[in-house]
Recover the amino acids of this structure.
């Protein structure tokens, strides 16, 4: 049965001539899981907001959105709030109340549901989403993943007919993101809830979707099966299709396009020889003494708390990009803050260019030496325009390795995640740092900006800087790092050149590496796999 | 009877207001003593050893009041001694003692109340009176810690970018001002998303219900009834002169012979919260010993 029908929908923002959404028509069946793809600025977010009456931006709108056979514009306020559930990108800002139970009840209170009914619905929803353990807690004490799950639950408690999600996992770490996506899948399968989701992380969403819609410049470029979408757009880098599909297309595969690691593995092992099993990588020699060195470092947040850094040994060299990986609470960010002089270790030593960090006095550490960008890059901005920001920090825009000229007059808060990262980076580069520390720089970035970030880091390393990145993003680390370190329980559990590091890990590794495990030895990116496939050639009898 | 801590939040609020109101309006030695001891017992039962500082504070308060009052007020017939040619009287000393004791009792009871009333219980009481402002308060309670954390993060980031040096007062005040202005724009920015999220979940200016995880049970009604009726009876009886106590010009009990019944009633409502608390503790001990 058809639940949602969109006919000739066009929209342009009040101040702009160009249409953000251009003549879009499609329909969604009840119980369908729809993945909406497209690069940044393709109108995905705008389209989703048009489906929720309360969130429609100002501008001219033509065409109709019909839910359950009735025009959405004709809904009563209650029905409109209840029937369409909407989850946004930012986990923190969507939360209204200070307690978990109150947040869950918020929507029902607005709908004037009787108290006894609220009690029942809140209880059953909390159980279904596994929130019973945190029911009475302050929302401030939750992790990002729990917050986003709470946002989902407090929308679902209103029992919507259709659920719309606008990049819900972009601010989460990969493990929390996977959990979030699998909760969505469970709701879709168990409750036959209709889901429309737009995501950068197609690797996980596409295999479970029933339908994929690709937007290009506000127009529907494709609407159909996910597999067909993957086959059609995998060569297009801005679409960020799963690695299996990219490898399939680049190696000229024919037949069904694989979209998850298992199918990808079947394709590669079935179609190619593996007499050459590994890629030759030149082993890098470290240049001189380490720029940053932790030796036997211990740190605690409180005297009675457990060690956040436990006997940490870590070295980062000039001219190299070092990536620190690890789960939540493994001490990654703590280590970075300690290196930036923001946390004082209570035992052991941190040396910056051979000199103990305590010997850098009166801000000497931050003059042409160390600069750090935190996860929340917004905290780097204090002024009204990008130009003022750059002038404040004494940064010359024309000397930057990237171009900011298009956004000089914008307010820093109005920038996209990627642009924000670039401006913050420009501020950090103004101090001419020899050690640059980055905390989760790829969070919320699209593939275009990630690629740009990779080349900027590479350029900095070639100019003799040491870049240390803390990240959850294994794909980014595999493509960009020279050395990778795995932190576990506050100490370095594994450390090595990127190729060896990911080749040796069975679980904590990239999807390309998972796909070729036991077949190739150290293929860790889609490029590696394609190169090895090319070198080996196809099986003579194979597909 | 269920302890006040586990009752509907209205029960402790009503009970403690009634006890302290009566203590303030009927300042008679027996009643003041009951209030002080009952309050101290209840507070200790709830806070255990962590309440040491409060005991010290109350002791200081009572002594100070007892010493200072006779120096200021020279009423009363029984002169103890002369100080700078002014009489220091027993009655004035007793009034000071009693005032201090009432204040101490109020501190104990309200100290106990703040231990019981967590922020969501407070909001519940508030929300029954005005749902709209309760929501506002809930939002504010959530926002204040967020603001604090953000300001700390901004300072750290600015330090790590070499833009925020600890220097003289002028430059550090300038820095603080910049951080403050960034915080304001962040708060506004944040507010837009929160407002969207509220609108998306049907928030409007219209009426809304208020949900709380605290149902009203028979036991809560019993607590509230006992305390309201007793306080009303004690205050009216005192007002019509059924019992009482005069401090000036000489210490003198007043009222009928059965005024002892009123004192007993007040002592009972003062000690009941602590007694129920102790009974609960004893029950736990008993249960644990059986495991």
């Amino acid at each position: 049965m058809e639940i949602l029908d969109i006919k000739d929908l066009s929209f342009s923002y009040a101040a702009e001539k160009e249409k953000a959404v251009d003549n879009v028509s499609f329909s969604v069946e009840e119980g369908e899981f729809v993945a909406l793809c497209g690069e940044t600025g393709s109108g995905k977010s705008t389209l989703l907001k048009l489906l929720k009456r309360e969130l429609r931006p100002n501008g001219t709108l033509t065409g109709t959105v019909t839910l359950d056979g009735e025009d959405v514009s004709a809904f009563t306020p209650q029905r409109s709030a209840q029937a369409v559930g909407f989850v946004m990108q930012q986990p923190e800002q969507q939360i209204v109340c200070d307690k978990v139970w109150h947040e869950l009840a918020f929507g029902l209170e607005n709908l004037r549901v009787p108290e006894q009914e609220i009690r029942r619905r809140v209880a059953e929803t909390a159980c279904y989403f596994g929130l019973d353990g945190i029911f009475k807690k302050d929302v401030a004490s939750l992790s990002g993943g729990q917050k986003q799950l709470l946002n989902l639950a407090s929308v679902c408690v209103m029992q919507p007919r259709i659920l719309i999600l606008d990049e819900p996992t972009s601010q989460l770490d990969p493990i929390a993101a996977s959990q979030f996506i699998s909760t969505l899948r469970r709701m879709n399968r168990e409750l036959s809830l209709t889901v429309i989701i737009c995501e950068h992380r197609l690797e996980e969403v596409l295999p479970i979707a029933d339908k994929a819609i690709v937007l290009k410049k506000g127009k529907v470029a494709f609407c159909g099966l996910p597999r067909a979408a993957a086959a059609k757009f995998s060569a297009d880098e801005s679409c960020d299709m799963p690695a299996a599909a990219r490898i399939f297309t680049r190696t000229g595969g024919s037949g069904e396009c694989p979209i998850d690691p298992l199918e990808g593995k079947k394709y590669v092992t079935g179609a190619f020889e593996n007499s050459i099993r590994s890629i030759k990588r030149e082993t890098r020699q470290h240049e001189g003494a380490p720029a940053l060195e932790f030796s036997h470092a211990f740190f605690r947040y409180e005297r009675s708390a457990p060690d956040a850094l436990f006997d940490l040994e870590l070295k980062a060299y000039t001219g190299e990009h070092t990536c620190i990986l690890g789960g939540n609470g493994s001490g990654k960010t703590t280590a970075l803050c300690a290196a930036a002089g923001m946390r004082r270790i209570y035992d052991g030593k941190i040396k910056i260019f051979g000199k103990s960090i305590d010997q850098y006095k009166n801000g000497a550490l931050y003059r042409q030496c160390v600069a750090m960008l935190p996860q929340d890059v917004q905290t780097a901005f204090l002024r009204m325009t990008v130009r003022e920001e750059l002038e404040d920090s004494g940064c010359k825009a024309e000397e930057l390795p990237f171009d900011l000229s298009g956004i000089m007059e914008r307010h820093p808060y109005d920038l996209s995640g990627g642009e924000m990262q670039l401006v913050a980076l420009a501020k950090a580069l103004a101090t001419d740092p020899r050690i640059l520390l980055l905390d989760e720089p790829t969070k919320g970035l699209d593939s275009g900006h990630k690629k740009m970030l990779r080349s900027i880091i590479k350029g900095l390393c070639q100019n003799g800087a040491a870049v240390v990145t803390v990240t959850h993003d294994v794909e980014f680390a595999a493509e960009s790092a020279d050395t990778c370190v795995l932190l576990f329980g506050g100490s370095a559990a594994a450390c090595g050149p990127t190729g060896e590091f990911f080749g040796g890990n069975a679980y904590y590794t990239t999807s390309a590496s998972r796909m070729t495990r036991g077949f190739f030895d150290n293929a860790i990116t889609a490029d590696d796999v394609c190169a090895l496939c090319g070198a080996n050639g196809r099986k003579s009898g194979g597909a | 009877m269920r302890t006040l801590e586990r009752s509907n939040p209205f029960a402790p609020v009503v009970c403690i207001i009634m006890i302290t109101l009566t203590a303030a309006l009927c300042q008679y030695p027996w009643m003041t003593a009951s209030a002080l001891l009952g309050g101290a017992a209840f507070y200790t039962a709830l806070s255990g050893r962590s309440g040491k500082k409060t005991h010290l504070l109350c002791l200081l308060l009572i002594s100070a009041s007892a010493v200072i009052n006779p120096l200021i007020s020279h009423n009363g017939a029984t002169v103890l001694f002369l100080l700078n040619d002014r009489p220091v009287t027993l009655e004035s000393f007793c009034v000071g003692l009693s005032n201090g004791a009432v204040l101490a009792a109020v501190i104990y009871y309200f100290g106990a109340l703040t231990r019981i009333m967590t922020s969501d219980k407070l909001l519940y009481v508030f929300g029954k009176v005005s749902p709209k402002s309760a929501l506002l308060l809930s939002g504010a309670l959530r926002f204040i810690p967020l603001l604090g954390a953000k300001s700390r993060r901004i300072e750290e980031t600015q330090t790590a970018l070499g833009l925020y040096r600890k220097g003289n007062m002028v430059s550090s005040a300038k820095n603080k001002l910049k951080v403050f202005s960034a915080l304001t724009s962040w708060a506004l920015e944040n507010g837009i998303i929160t407002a969207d999220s509220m609108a998306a979940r049907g928030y409007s200016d219209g009426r809304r219900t208020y949900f709380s995880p605290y149902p009203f049970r028979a036991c809560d009604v019993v607590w509230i009834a006992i305390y309201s009726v007793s306080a009303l009876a004690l205050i009216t009886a005192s007002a019509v002169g059924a019992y009482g106590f005069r401090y000036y010009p000489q210490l003198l009990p007043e009222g009928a012979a059965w005024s002892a019944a009123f004192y007993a009633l007040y002592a009972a409502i003062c000690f009941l919260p602590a007694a129920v608390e102790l009974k609960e503790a004893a029950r736990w001990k008993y249960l644990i010993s059986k495991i």
Summary: The mean pLDDT of chain A is 91. The CA atoms of residues 418 and 445 of chain A lie 5 Å apart. Chain A touches chain B through 70 residues (CB under 8 Å). The two ends of chain A are 39 Å apart (CA to CA).
